[in-house]
Each structure stands twice: as C-alpha cells, then as structure tokens.
C-alpha cells in the first residue's frame, strides 16, 4: 500500500532568506498533506507544487506527489515524481516499491522488477516487494523464479496469505498441481473466506481428476460467492466428469441463469444432454452456443452427430457443411457426410423411394471421393471396413 511521507523536513540554519523559503515550503507541504487526508487530491497536488517552488529538493513532496498522481490515474506523471524523489534520496525503499507497482501496471515489467530489486536491496525483509516481484515474474511467465520470490516473502512473513495464494497460482501454471493445492490450503487456513483460493484450488483438483474434491472446493466458493457463473460452470464440468449428467445440467442451468450469454456453458450442457440421449434438447443447447459463438466447430460437429442419431439427415448434412465452410480441407467432414448419405439411402430403401436412394448414393460417393483425395491411405481403408457404409458397400468397392 502506498503511504504519504509524514515526517517533517527540518529547517536548516543559515541565511534568513533560505530559512524563510524552507519554512514556506514546509507550510505548503503540511497543507498538501491535510488536503490529501480530506480527499482533495488535486488541491493537495497544487500545495506540494508550491512547496517545491520554494524547495525543489523536498523529496517528501515529490514522493507524495507520486502517491497522489497514482491515485488520480496519472501513472507516467507519478513515475516522474518518484524519479525526482529518488534522485534526491535514493535510499527510500517505499519510493522504489511504489514506482515498481506503477511500472508493472503500465506493463513495463523488466523495469518493474529492477525497481522491486532496488527496494529489496535497501530493505531485504520487504515481503510485499518480494511478493510483487513474484507477481511480475508470473506476468513474464517465469514461474520458477516467481515461486522462489514468493518463498522469500514467506520466509520473512510465514502468515502472508497473498504470497501463499500467488505461489499456488504459479505452481499450478507450472503443472505442479499437488504443490499448488497445498499452497492454496495454506492461504485458506490464513484467510478462510478467500473465495478465489477455494475456486482455484478446485481447478487444480479437477486437473488432477480429483472431481469429488473439486466439487467440494467449488461448493465452498459458492458459499462465499453464490452468484458466480464461472464457478457454477466449472462445478458442472467436474460433476459431468463423474458421470452425473443430470446434476451437471442443474449446475449449468444455475450458471446460465446468472450469465445466459456464456457459449461454453451452453455447449457443455449440450454434451451432457447428448450423454443422456436427449438429443433434441442437446441440439437446442448447441444452437444457443452457436448463436453466441458462430465459429464453434465442435458444436456444429456434435450437433450433426445428434441430428444423425435422430435421423434428421438433411440437418446433419447442413451442420457438417457449416464446418466445411470454416475448414474445407478436413477429410473427416466429407467422410462423415458420406456416412449420413449412406444412412439416408437405407431410409430411402425402407420407403421404397428409388429416386431418393440414387441421389443419396451419388452424394455419398462424391463425399467419399473427396475424403480419399485429401487422405488416401486412411479413407480407402475405412471404406472397406466401416459398418456405417454397409448399405452402399457395392457402390464404394471401386473407391477402395
């Protein structure tokens, strides 16, 4: 946390004019501090600027300007103020630390790390600086170095929850889920209402396929933040991994009540419904997903499979065509279309509709030929063995 400098600058003895200027500078400085404490930040800046007119080397005034400019969102100007303060008094770890925080916010990450290291050099037990140095290293995806920085902070202050939490995040991003879970546990022990830790712990447990434990962690998150759609979504995913599709759908319905424009949740809900063989409901769910994310090829593909399952062949073909428009060189799409036409042919046989049968065969052959053109080795072999093509086996024999 950035703090205003509070100690008074002593008035040096010397010529009377210098003493008067220093006294005026101190008065303007104190006035600025009072205004800042009242929340009148712009007026406080004006007072400190007046103080600096009388005493340009008043490093506390430069420092306080930096703090207040940051609060006003004037970040480059805040850095300049800290630079001025540090030029006068370079051994101020707070100024280096605050400067580093702003540099990180401006995504000037290497400069931020250098500034944190200056603060640490002056104050080796500065656990906040070690932690924020770690955070900056995470931004740079230097996770091992970040973990080492968090460990320094924890060695200084073992009950510093933020360091444990951020260390866990770095460990998870290093695929060290077991260690991450232990670190989240420590953060939660120190701060039981830290909902982000419960949530991220759930993600790490799910990554380890510990789904019941993940659900329990999500449930703790929801006790603290019941209106979090992303938690309801991830909870549904973990429950689905346990094969409890009805319960998963109930969790996703909670997520969608809070955030109805979440394409991923609609998509996952469709998968669960398909697993329950509720294909028409699954299709409706994927339709919602596609309204929100029209380039979701997986939703189109699963939708096509569901249409095929309920023998709505034309719609299955149309769904495959939507994917082909996005990815025209995928041989599997043409092959799957051919399989649908083969099924359509069988339906035409049952209805004694020779014209429809002939059309279906022709389209099946055309799509199989395209699949073989794109991947001859794989699809020539599939033509011989795939039971889905048994209704047109004679017609496709020459392709194999």
Describe the structure.
It is a single chain. The protein is mostly helical. It is built from 22 helices and no strands. Helix 11 packs antiparallel against helix 12 (211-224) and helix 16 (279-292) packs antiparallel against helix 17 (297-309). The longest helix has 22 residues, at 16-37. The relative contact order is 0.03.
Shape: elongated
The overall pLDDT, averaged over residues, is 91
Elements, N to C (H/E): HHHHHHHHHHHHHHHHHHHHHH
Strand content: under 5%
Task: Report the radius of gyration as a whole number of Å.
Answer: 33 Å
Helix content: over 70%
List keywords for this structure.
400 residues; mainly alpha; 22 helices; 77% helix; disordered N terminus
SSE map:
Layout: H1 16-37, H2 41-54, H3 59-71, H4 75-88, H5 93-105, H6 109-122, H7 127-139, H8 143-156, H9 161-173, H10 177-190, H11 195-207, H12 211-224, H13 229-241, H14 245-258, H15 263-275, H16 279-292, H17 297-309, H18 313-326, H19 331-350, H20 354-374, H21 376-385, H22 393-396
């Amino acid at each position: 946390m950035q703090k205003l400098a509070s100690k008074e600058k002593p008035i040096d003895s010397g010529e009377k004019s210098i003493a008067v200027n220093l006294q005026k500078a101190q008065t303007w400085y104190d006035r600025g501090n009072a205004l800042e404490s009242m929340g009148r930040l712009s007026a406080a800046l004006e007072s400190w600027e007046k103080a600096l007119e009388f005493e340009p080397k008043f490093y506390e005034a430069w420092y306080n300007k930096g703090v207040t400019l940051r609060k006003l969102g004037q970040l480059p100007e805040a850095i300049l103020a800290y630079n001025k303060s540090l030029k006068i008094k370079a051994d101020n770890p707070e100024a280096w630390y605050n400067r580093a925080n702003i540099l990180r916010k401006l995504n000037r990450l290497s400069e931020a790390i250098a500034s944190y290291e200056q603060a640490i050099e002056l104050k080796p037990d500065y656990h906040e600086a070690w932690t924020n140095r770690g955070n900056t290293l995470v931004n740079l995806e230097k996770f091992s170095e970040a973990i080492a920085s968090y460990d320094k902070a924890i060695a200084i202050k073992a009950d510093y929850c933020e360091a444990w939490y951020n260390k866990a995040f770095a460990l998870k991003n290093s695929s060290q889920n077991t260690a991450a879970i232990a670190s989240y546990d420590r953060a939660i022990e120190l701060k039981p209402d830290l909902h982000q830790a419960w949530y991220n712990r759930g993600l790490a447990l799910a990554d380890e396929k510990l789904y019941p434990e993940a659900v329990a962690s999500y449930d703790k998150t929801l006790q603290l933040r019941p209106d979090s759609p992303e938690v309801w979504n991830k909870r549904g995913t973990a429950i689905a991994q346990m094969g409890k599709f009805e319960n998963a759908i109930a969790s996703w319905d909670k997520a969608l009540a809070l955030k109805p424009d979440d394409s991923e949740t609609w998509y996952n809900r469709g998968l669960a419904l398909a697993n329950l063989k509720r294909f028409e409901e699954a299709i409706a769910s994927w339709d919602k997903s596609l309204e929100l994310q029209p380039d979701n090829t997986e939703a189109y593909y699963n939708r096509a499979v569901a249409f095929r399952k309920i023998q709505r062949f034309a719609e299955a073909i149309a769904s495959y065509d939507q994917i082909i428009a996005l990815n025209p060189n995928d041989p599997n799409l043409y092959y799957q279309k051919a399989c649908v036409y083969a099924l359509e042919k069988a339906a035409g046989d049952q209805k004694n509709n020779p014209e429809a049968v002939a059309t279906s065969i022709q389209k099946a052959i055309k799509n199989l030929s395209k699949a073989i053109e794109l991947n001859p080795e794989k699809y020539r072999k599939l033509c011989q063995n795939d039971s889905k093509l048994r209704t047109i086996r004679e017609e496709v024999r020459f392709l194999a």
